[in-house]
Input
Amino acid sequence: MPGTMHLKVILFTTCLLVTGSLSAQGIIAGEYYWDNDPGTGNGSPIVAVDGTLGQALEQVLAETSALPAPGTHILFLRVRDDNNQWGPAFHTVIEVLSGSLLVPDIQVSQGEFFWDSDPGQGSGSTLLAFDGNYDSALEAIHLETTSLPSPGTHTLGLRVRDVNGNWGPVFRVVTEVLPGSVSFPDIHVSAAEYWADSDPGEGAAMPMLAADGNFDSAVEAVKGGNIPVPVFSGTQVLWMRAQDDDGGWGPPFGVVVNIDTTITGTVAIPELNGNAIRIGPNPTTAAQGFDIRFNDPASFQVRVLDVRGRVLVDRTFNGASTVHVPLDGLASGTYPVGIRIGEQWTWSPVVVH
Output
């Protein structure tokens, strides 16, 4: 029929096989390597920017104390999912410049935190270094606050400053403050005890002493009194536990020690260049210090370090057989003592009560 148009419609179809819902996969590990593949799982670990690998998409950073030689190199990265399957390696070309192998001596000098609104750099609440001192490039930190925000969801912001006075970026984490968590119970350590090997029962072990002379804080530095009886020479497990002011004992903490029952106030250390040395008294006090005795007069250097390796005492003696080393002002603890004759050093621990 004139003027009539005919359309032909073609239906396109395809078959799909639905095998089940997709699983929620996360990244549980990552690694990187330079130039040559060491094999899956054998590279250097990469770190999640947010501190944990647990998402399907992650921001990661690679930390290395040594870069390849200056020049053009290939950096490879790959990750592993929660089914333990490694993905393909992603790579990029990087030019390592001369001088980039030298890492500056960067230290954290200060930290602060704030809730929700940023008060500005330097105006937040002070963060405390976990070891009591900001002196490293990486620091474990903790915050103390007598009052938390109102119950509910809040954003906690943290940032640190380096020794050049530069503040880093703010790290934020969402925190839920639960009802009742705003107030803190007044907890104190009221007693502590220790024993070797077999537990005599709560309250029946050897009493420990507070380093400041009084158990009155939630965190206390403690020291031993008399040696637990009976005591046997050799390797044993030394156990300690503390009691709160409600009379409840905490769990025991154990450490393996080698007990020497022959020590009578001085500690013999190995011969140094054929000259026998003795250090004593050990243990000692800061006011008393200690003496170093040589069988034969010698010229030598003495260093006393703290547990972080910082030099507290550094003295040189010429042609002496007995010298006194003062420890005025040192806190209670164990201090490595080094003695050098010529280029040879030998070290021994000295305990200060």
Observations:
- The longest strand covers residues 290-305.
- Residues 108-177 form one domain.
- The two ends are 116 Å apart (CA to CA).
